[in-house]
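STRUCTURE:
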């Protein structure tokens, strides 16, 4: 490795900033050890992985970023044997175009699934092998993030702020907070994460991010600057007890796909790297055992289990085990944030000894409050979500090419907020921030957000929850648009806006949305 990593510089000073709704803020008297970044460097993850990719390619690794894995392949006896890449050349109605090219099967004795948070193939593998059996469910936050170029001299490079409070309420039930990392050349990385287990049906991570930026502490820093990039992403935060079994016949899970994130520090990169290294060791042993074979068989469960043992014997386990009940502490209602802070604080201080045992967790969508108690015997039960496969998206697109008949009432049963803020000064509406994300998708392809049954959206969901998808999507993909006659509304999927955060796959109250890999396109993470 003769090239220097693309560091922005060392993290020089951490401060916890307590933000109040009235516009005030103060430095917390102490910065808890979990927030300390001593010895750490700040850098863009996107630049870092590009740097790593160059080194890997020089060493002979083939990287194909243009071909998403679209489907898991199995042997007849149920082992993972690889992945199929996405078919190319299917139109928006699910029909093959002249340019159609079927996906390619990529097979291997061992497949390592590292798709990040809420991986779509990972999700199907977890279900097929029942990898969550006996574990807590996984829960998530959504983080909205921007990189800004600000006027010179506003903040010293290397300064790190961790913010608590506004716009999240100290007496509320949302877990989350913000960060400001001062990069070199007067750039700052700013962001806010908020938990998706909030009871609020109109929870809108992008709106909260916008309110956070309007706090004078942020606003004074950003005014006169310009946004370089926007992005949003979910984070799996359940911790050790929410890990699915990360090995199965023929495959293992690494990084966020498994859930290796330390939420006391909002850090997962080091754990993703460590799990990747251990998976590589396990894979090497599998390959070694097949050296010289012409058609090597996929690994058995016994052959992938050593990956688990390697994890248990590494510092990754020690780190996550010490904070195994941290995030669960915040799911107590009411006053989840306050109660969580007390319990989680004791948990960290006792090195995980208290509270003992395993605190339970509820899935994110379970606690969403209904806006009306109305029920209707004609409402259908929600169907099972469609499997995450590109061909499913094509089938659903084909079945809807003549439109959907059901229509939601023109007005929700109770007045609800607008689903996006207006662009003004340092805040931007969702569509403008999509522009800042650089996200682009070919329009003539099936929508990669597969809603299993839109009648549910137009009937039950409108009445019971007020269509939360309009709020939780940080890119304005889900829109309850007026019908041409103005008599009602229907769900419109502006799928080309999608920034691939996976929030919809997680927080939909009926669990009927499946995010599948699009044929092509997505956000430009450059600089994030
Ligand atoms: C807002 C936010 C801030 C964070 N801040 C920090 C921080 O400061 N420090 C820290 O250590 N951690 C931080 N994290 C967590 C950290 O980003 C993750 O833990 C880490 O990136 C996980 O790495 P990964 O390789 O598992 O997944 P990712 O980094 O998400 O990479 C997965 C990759 O796989 C691709 N992919 C997904 N599905 C497919 C498919 N089917 N086929 C092909 N490719 C696919 C994705 O596009 C992506 O490029 C933060 C997370 C968020 C959301
Ligand atoms: S459609 Fe889903 S994955 Fe895409 S930006 Fe919206 S919430 Fe995120």
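SEQUENCE:
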């Amino acid at each position: 490795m003769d090239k220097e990593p693309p560091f922005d510089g060392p993290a020089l000073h951490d401060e916890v900033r307590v933000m109040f709704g009235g516009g005030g803020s103060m430095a917390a008297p102490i910065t808890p050890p979990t927030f300390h970044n001593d010895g750490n460097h700040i850098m863009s993850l996107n630049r870092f992985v590009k740097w790593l990719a160059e080194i890997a390619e020089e060493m002979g690794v083939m990287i194909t970023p243009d071909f998403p894995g679209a489907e898991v392949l199995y042997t007849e006896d149920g082992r993972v044997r690889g992945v199929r890449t996405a078919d190319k050349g299917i139109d928006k109605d699910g029909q093959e175009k002249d340019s159609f090219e079927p996906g390619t099967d990529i097979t291997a004795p061992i497949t390592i699934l590292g798709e990040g948070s809420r991986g779509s193939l990972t999700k199907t593998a977890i279900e097929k092998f029942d990898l969550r059996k006996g574990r807590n469910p996984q829960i998530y936050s959504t983080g909205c993030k921007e990189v800004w170029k600000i006027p010179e001299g506003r903040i010293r490079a290397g300064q790190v702020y961790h913010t608590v409070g506004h716009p999240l309420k100290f007496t509320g039930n949302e877990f989350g907070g913000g960060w400001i990392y001062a990069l070199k050349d007067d750039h700052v990385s700013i962001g806010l994460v908020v938990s998706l287990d909030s009871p609020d049906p109109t929870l809108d991570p992008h709106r909260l991010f916008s309110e956070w930026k309007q706090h004078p502490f942020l606003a004074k820093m950003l005014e006169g600057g310009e946004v370089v990039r926007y992005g949003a992403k979910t984070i799996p935060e359940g911790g050790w007890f929410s890990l699915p079994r990360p090995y199965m016949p023929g495959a293992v899970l690494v990084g966020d796909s498994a859930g290796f994130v330390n939420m006391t520090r909002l850090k997962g990169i080091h754990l993703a790297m460590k799990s990747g290294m251990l998976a590589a060791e396990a894979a090497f042993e599998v390959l070694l055992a097949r050296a010289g074979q012409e058609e090597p068989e996929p690994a058995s469960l016994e052959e992938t289990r050593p990956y688990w043992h390697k994890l248990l014997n590494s510092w990754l386990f020690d780190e996550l085990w010490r904070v195994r009940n941290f995030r669960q502490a915040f799911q107590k209602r009411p006053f989840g944030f306050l109660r969580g802070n007390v319990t989680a604080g004791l948990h960290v201080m006792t090195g995980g000894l208290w509270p003992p045992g395993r605190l339970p967790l509820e899935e994110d969508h379970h606690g969403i409050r209904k806006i009306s108690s109305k029920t209707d015997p004609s409402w259908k039960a929600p169907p099972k979500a469609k499997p995450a496969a590109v061909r499913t998206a094509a089938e659903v697109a084909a079945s809807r090419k003549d439109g959907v008949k059901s229509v939601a009432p023109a007005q929700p049963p109770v007045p609800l907020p607008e689903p996006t803020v207006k662009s003004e000064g340092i805040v931007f509406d969702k569509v403008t921030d999509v522009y800042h994300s650089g996200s682009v998708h070919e329009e003539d392809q099936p929508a990669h957000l597969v809603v299993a049954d839109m009648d549910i959206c137009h009937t039950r969901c409108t009445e019971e929850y007020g269509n939360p998808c309009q709020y939780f999507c940080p890119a304005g993909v889900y829109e309850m648009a007026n019908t041409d006659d103005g008599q009602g509304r229907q769900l419109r999927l502006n799928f080309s806006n999608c920034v691939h955060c996976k929030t919809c796959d997680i927080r939909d109250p009926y669990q009927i949305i499946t995010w599948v890999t699009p044929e092509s396109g997505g956000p430009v993470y450059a600089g994030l």
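REMARK: The radius of gyration is 23 Å.
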